[in-house]
From TrEMBL:
GO terms for molecular function: catalytic activity. PANTHER family: ENDONUCLEASE_EXONUCLEASE_PHOSPHATASE, RNASE H DOMAIN-CONTAINING PROTEIN. It comes from Dendrobium catenatum. It comes from the Eukaryota. This is Endonuclease/exonuclease/phosphatase domain-containing protein. Residues 6-155 form the Endonuclease/exonuclease/phosphatase domain.
C-alpha cells in the first residue's frame, strides 16, 4: 500500500515540523511525502536524514526568499522514482513500483496569483502521461466550496476557483 502525505508545513527546518512529521510517518505508515512552503533555499542529504531518517530519497524545489518551496520525500525501497518536470509551483514525477505498476504524482504549491497559477495548469497538462493514473496533491491556494473556508472574508466563487474547477472537471 502507498500512503501519501501532502502538508503545508510553513517551514521545514522547524523542530516541531520534524517531530510531527516523524509521528505521522509512524502512525500512518507514510511512504511518500510532499512538504509545501518549506521556506528553504537549500536542502541537503543531511537535512533529510535529520528530518525523516536515512532510508528516504528526495527532490527539492527551493523557495524564493522566505516564501514557497517544495520538498518531495519517498522511502527508497518504494520503487523507481523519476522526476519528469519541476518548477516553482510543482514537482511532477513517475513512481514505478514494479514493471507493470506506475503512477504519475504531482506535488503542488500554487502561486497565490490567479495569473501565475495558470502556468501551473498548463505545466500539469503538458507533463502528465495520459496512459498512467495520477495523484495530484498539495496547496492550491484556492478553494472551490464555502465549507473549505475557515474565517476571514466571506467566500465568493472567483475566477480562480472557476479555473481550478474547470481544470479538474468539477
Amino acid at each position: 500500500m502507498l500512503n501519501i502525505l501532502c502538508w503545508n508545513c510553513r517551514g521545514a527546518r522547524k523542530k516541531e515540523t520534524g517531530n510531527f512529521l516523524r509521528h505521522l510517518i509512524g502512525e500512518h505508515g507514510v511512504s511518500f511525502i510532499g512538504l509545501l512552503e518549506t521556506k528553504m533555499e537549500t536542502w541537503m542529504r543531511r537535512d533529510v536524514d535529520r528530518l525523516v531518517g536515512r532510508n528516504w530519497d528526495f527532490c527539492f524545489q527551493p523557495s524564493h526568499g522566505r516564501a514557497g518551496g517544495i520538498l518531495v520525500l519517498w522511502k527508497n525501497m518504494l520503487g523507481t522514482f523519476q522526476i519528469s518536470f519541476q518548477s516553482n509551483q510543482c514537482i511532477i514525477s513517475t513512481l514505478t513500483r514494479s514493471t507493470t505498476i506506475a503512477w504519475d504524482i504531482v506535488v503542488v504549491y500554487a502561486n497565490n496569483d490567479m495569473y501565475g497559477r495558470r502556468q501551473l495548469w498548463e505545466d500539469i497538462s503538458n507533463h502528465l502521461s495520459a496512459a498512467l493514473p495520477h495523484v495530484v496533491g498539495g496547496d492550491f491556494n484556492c478553494i472551490l466550496e464555502p465549507d473549505e473556508k475557515k474565517g476571514g472574508k466571506p467566500f465568493t466563487y472567483s475566477q480562480s476557483a472557476s479555473e481550478m474547477g474547470g481544470f479538474y472537471g468539477c
